[in-house]
Design brief:
Elements lengths: L2 E4 L5 E5 L2 H12 L5 H8 L3 H13 L19 E9 L4 H12 L4 E6 L6 E7 L2 H11 L6 E8 L18
Antiparallel strand pairs: 1-2, 3-5, 3-6, 4-5
Helix pairs in contact: 2-3
Length: 171
Amino acid sequence: MPNFELTKSKTPMARILDQIDHKILRILQERGRISNVELSREIDLSPAPTLERVRKLEKLRYIEGYHADINLGKMGITIKALIQVTLHHHQGVNIHQFIEAVMKIPEVTECYQVTGEFDYMLRVLTSDIEALDKLITNVISKIPEVGQIKSHIILSVIKQSKVLPILHPSE
């Protein structure tokens, strides 16, 4: 089993995950609905210790949830876009108000605070170009803290992996 300890903040944290834990994380990312019995076969452990490891990884929040991958086209979502946003002012209250406003917009599926020429990158999903235009014109540009907006429609997705790289600490 991995060596677990409590940090000063009393948050459980693994110092080191072993190869079996890494394999479990990779497999569950690829096939979240795999049964414990199948998983145990793939990692060469019996079901009980496999389940114990998965529960430990969940408890320590290495695994934060299991999600369905929804077909966007079947849901009527045909436009994916990235929107760069620059704020007028960078005081705490302005940032907080912008974040609160963005959190209320269902079409915004991701929001990143970034470095560089703009402050935030939004990933948005809409049904069509008209809906994207309305979203930018009637919603995002109306947020008082927003200074500048640049939008980029995603033409095609070259790579979109839901599987995170499992980094091995250097020894």
